[in-house]
Amino acid sequence: SYSVFLSFRLSIFSTYALGNF
Q1: Conformation bin of residue 3: beta by default, left when phi > 0, alpha when psi is -120 to 50
Q2: One digit per residue, pLDDT tens: the chain, 21 residues?
């Protein structure tokens, strides 16, 4: 579903943000 895709994408974005921070 789209919700799963969005959740997965959000998790990647969060990880990237933490790594960049």
Answers
A1: alpha
A2: 789 999 999 999 998 888 876
